[in-house]
Amino acid sequence: MSGFNFINPFGVREDPGSFVGDRYTDNFSRKARRDTIVLNLGPQHPSTHGVLRILVEMEGEYILRAEPVLGYLHRMHEKMAEVKTPWQFIPNMGRVDYLHPISWNWAYVGAVERLAGIEVPERAEYLRIISCELNRIASHLMWWGAFVMDLGGVTPILYAFEEREKINDILQIVTGSRLTLSYFRFGGVSTDIDDRFERLTREFIPYLRERLKMYKALVTDNIIFRRRLEGIGPMDLDLCQRYGATGPILRAAGLAYDTRRDIPYGLYDRFEFDIPCGPSNDSYGRYLLRLAEVGTSLDIIEQAIESIPDGPIKIAKAPKANYKLPAGETFFAVEGGRGQVGVHLVSDGGQCPYRIKLRAPGYSNLSLFAEAAKGTLLADAIAILGSLDLVIPEVDR
Amino acid sequence: MTSIDSLEGRFKEAGALVVCRHDFKREGLVLSALIPANALTELAEGLKGDGYTLLDVSILHAKEGFLVTYHFDSFKEPGRLALRVLAQGDQPAVPSLAPIFDGAEWHEREGRDFYGVAFLGNPNPMPLILPEDFQGDPPLRKAPAALASITALGLFGKPQILDAAWWENLTNPVKDGD
Amino acid sequence: MELSLLSFVQIIIACLLIIGLMVGNAVIMVYIERKAAGFIQRRPGPYEVGPRGTIQAICDAMKLLGKQLFIPGNVDWALYFLAPVLAFLPVLVLFLPIPFGKYLTTLQVDDGILLILAFAGLGVISNILAGWASNNKYGLLGAARAVAQSVAYEIPMIMALLAVVFLTGSLNLTAIVERQGTWPWEWNIAYQPLACFIYFVSLVGETNRAPFDLPEAESELTAGFHTEYSGMGFALFFLSEYANMLLVSFVCATFFLGGYRGPILDGFWWTFIKAYAVMCVIVWLRWTFPRVRFDQLLNINWKWLLPLSILNLWVTAIIIKFID
Q1: How many domains does the structure of chain C reveal?
Q2: ipTM above 0.90, yes or no
Q3: From the DSSP assignment, how many helices (H) and strands (E) are in chain A?
Q4: CA dist., res. A362 & res. A388, Å (int)
Q5: Does A62 touch chain C (CB under 8 A)?
Q6: Which residue ranges does chain A devote to CATH 1.10.645.10?
Q7: What is the CATH number of domain B4-161?
Q8: Looking at the complex, does the CB of residue B84 fall below 8 Å from at least one CB of chain A?
Q9: Which listed residue, B57, B96, B139, C105, has the most CB atoms within 10 A of its CB?
Q10: Best mutation site among A155, A163, A165 for testing chain C: the one with the most C CBs within 10 Å?
Q11: Which of C140, C293, C295, C304 to substitute to test the interface with A, most A CBs within 10 Å?
Q12: Cα Rg for chain C, rounded, in angstroms?
């Protein structure tokens, strides 16, 4: 906005030839009506969880159009993969999605293993499942707190952090870090669990189940909270199909599609767990679904920690730093906290992979925001944005 | 239920240049087809009708040009497919899938950012991930020696080459003008 | 009321004391609020600065005072600087008719509550000016929300207070306290529970506190009308917010909770205890509830509070007319 104008304080172009803001704003406001406000949400906005930027055209508080602008957290992971050996690239995977890094660990390591034909020992598979599910719970809890904060409830995020700290304590024992976890190795995992890990995990399961009841009493049943979410941002199956949305959004739309069960990987087919789906495709449905998924993850961990077999945690001839991938292509997908995480790996048989394409679920999920937010109130758009569970580093990669 | 056989038949009918069955366990794909660019829209529409969704658009910079790979998956009966289009020439271009799969808009914009492949018909051809004022060429592999041939990457497993002349030309390009 | 030299001096002294009270209140409330938030959120709250973090609020105030006055480009200078001052000034007048104790009133005004309501309406003007002058779209949206909300919530607030005025037959606040007894069941809250409830909801809306903090809704409008204010400008808005909270709590204590009268030993301490109890409830609400949406906020007001308060007033009037 340049030049304050009392007649036209919204900064809508008077002269069609003038240039407003940067290219995105200019391009966006070129199509705007004269009596509307073009508002720039972000990249530094409390509700965009990082550095997402959304241009919205508003009539009063109603959103006529929205356009996300990405790229503020782009780190070129895909390009980095082309100059790093597969081994060197593992730490990058902990940094793509900082809330559920283990899923990215798995997607990448799994892709390499599939291409190279590496079999993983049974104990390692169990450890992978336990760590991945613990991490998924941490991711969902973090989302829970942040989502309620988007709606103005400041307290629940600190409760969520309390639980998340416990999970971090557990995962720290085997991964050594608390945020950008790099636990997986080709042909296994890096560290074996000890008694403390087992004890803490066993203690954590009933503890979180109790806490989930408190969450329900404090937040889920709150009348203000329900009124804010029910019927807001419906996303049906057609929308999901057109945008390639996966994960909780798709399941809330009523389709029990979960990579863990539909395209089984690891040893997920050994465990009994139900894929929650529904109950409604609005923001409240997505909220309930994610809390139900925490229960599912707890079920899986409970079974896995009870039946974990003894044995090695890594294959004997695990690929080393100078390992060369055989030529070929693979697409490997796992279920992350936000949806289907995919790695498309192409190798020419050289030192480094020839091309890696990361399929981030958040990228597809965010792309439907513009359509979902159309015609809603600003506050509803924030609720919809929160219910998508975005992690911007993952969207931008 | 759309069987893989019927899909394969449909790809062949649409004039696919190469069709290939994959080992899902190793390659994560069931079926892939290299198709001419003009058949893409029609095939994508058919896949949409069968309940397939677009997972991503992955572009490969190879010696012959840009191999644009569209990954599709069905939520109802998972079986991943790949449609490939080879965009060649100085100004590589393929038709946009955004009118069919709205999600393709972003994947295509990203592809245009990083590979300079134009997606004709994209409703919003703005840079997406690169900065808006980014000047210069897309960040491609610069050295010609670093480029692999798509036939050497093992993308096609055991391919059924349907257009032998085209394949021959791809593997041993006739240098005209030399 | 004649204005002799003595009463003039008296008012000056009282004003100084009120300013002291406002500043002291802000310091104490910041501490209470942060400690309460800490308790609710299962964390210690401030505890580094001073014993148990007691001087944290003072240090915060010093920081705000010492900060550079950052003026964004293209603001309307006059209005931009006027707004925070305008937010703070009327609050002084608002405290004049409040009976802290039986004889502890700055100005015995017969129309005390009218004076308060009239000047309380000025506060929103500063919000509009701040939002408009700072040349910021978030500010503008916040200001628009502030106007709609203030105007809406003032009406049921007045209606609720009127019911008590009907009961007392006077607009004088001391008279209203004097009519109430010493025990809780003799206070107006026992006679007018609905009016008390409506007043309480409206006061949360009127002071822009969560869950009705829409003009400064952080997750939607970053900071609403005071987005562009920093340092002292922000501090004045902050101060006036707490002063307004204190004022509505005092009015609540006076009208519904028996003012300075208590079970034992009447005196100003009762007024303060009651007012701070009300404030603690407001703080408790803030850290527990999520924020309502703007249309819901107005619906609560126009569809529930207003009809209820009119009904309440009507029933009160009929009862007074035919029973008393």
Answers
A1: 1
A2: no
A3: 16, 8
A4: 8
A5: no
A6: 77-396
A7: 3.30.460.80
A8: no
A9: B57
A10: A155
A11: C293
A12: 20
Interchain CB distance below 8 Å, B61 and A355: yes
Is the Cα torsion angle C286, C291, C294, C297 positive or negative in sign? negative
Which of B27, B74, B76 best probes binding to A when mutated, by most A CB atoms within 10 angstroms? B27
3-state secondary structure of A128: helix
Q: Which two tokens stand for residue C17?
A: 């004391």
Domain spanning A77-396 has what CATH number? 1.10.645.10
A122-149 pLDDT, tens digit per residue, is 888 899 999 999 999 999 999 999 999 8
From B74, B79, B68, select the one nearest B49 (Cα to Cα).
B74
pLDDT tens for the 324 residues of chain C, in order = 556 788 788 888 888 888 888 888 888 888 888 889 899 888 888 888 888 888 888 888 888 888 888 788 777 778 888 888 888 888 888 888 888 887 777 777 788 888 888 888 888 888 888 888 888 888 888 888 888 888 888 889 988 988 888 888 888 888 888 888 888 788 888 888 888 999 999 988 888 887 888 888 777 788 888 888 888 888 888 888 888 888 889 899 888 888 888 888 877 888 888 899 999 999 998 888 888 888 888 898 999 999 999 999 999 888 888 876
Chain C nearest-CA distance from A101, in A, is 26
Find the residue in A nearest to B81 (Cα). A331
Q: Under DSSP, is residue C157 helix (H, G, I), strand (E, B) or coil?
A: helix
Residue in chain A lying closest to B73 (CA): A244
CB pair distance less than 8 Å for B129 and A396 = yes
Tokens standing for A181? 């976890």
A363 contacts in chain B (CB < 8 Å): 106
Predicted TM-score (pTM) of the model is: 0.86
Residue C212 lies in a domain: yes
